[in-house]
Amino acid sequence: MIIGKPPIALFRSIRYSVALIITLVVVLAYFAIAAIGSSAASNLEAFPAAEAGMVRHVIRLPQLPEENLVKVELMVGKTVKTDSINRYFFGGKLKTESIPGWGYNRYILPELGPMAGTLMAVDPDAPLVERFITLGGEAPLIRYNSRIPIVVYLPTGVEVRHRLWRAESQSNNTARFLQKMVLPGKLVAVVSEGDWEARSIGSYSVRIYSTEHAASDDDTTFFVSAITRKRDGGIERILLAELAAGEPPSLIVVIRSAGSGGYLSADAFTVTGERIELRGSVYGLPARADPVQKLIEDLHSEKQGQ
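RESULT FIELD:
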């Protein structure tokens, strides 16, 4: 069978068809981009201009998969020269205000308060360093939404930065112990099992924060010290208990093993100033034993043996 050359008219027809398809794709893409730009512009029209002495900051977020799992942290502050040792923060609170008729939120800092911080001794000859000092208290976390800009109104000279926090899908997340406890001496402890570890075995941490210069609504701004321990089981509870007469109470972490035995273990920690130390541990106690009493007995025996 001999196949002849296709007629020239057929090539022209194919060429014109391809050109028409390309033209349609370009036109549709143009209108899609124009629609997105128009939507973004109309969204921004909902936010009024900044008043005198204020600046309007606009944060546009790109589209992400599973935006419902993402949060945006807003960090407001200024870059200043300070020592590199002390912890500093500015006074002031970022307010959330709903725009009537639109349902959008805007974020406003009416005034930046004075800068405060800790009072640790500093070498007078040490050079100052540039640091971004933020507002005191916990930075706000807001819902990620790529369709609406985040608009923040700040006094002139104040900056806003942001970072993203993503949660894993619930199917990938493992429940864990996480609890906060107030300690003597203007301190607070946060005890938590390790991220993404099994409840039956793994690690846990005890983090200590100073509340001496913290804002009233936040007590985990000024980190002091931490310790990480191995665990065989899940943390059942934490408590404060006096292990020896005349001593400040110790922080006790009680752990129950997995399985039918449900054996108990416990670690005791002393927190003094900016130090956290392991005071003592007990292991393999019966399910209904009193781990605090066992710690007291063991420490008393050690003292008697010295």
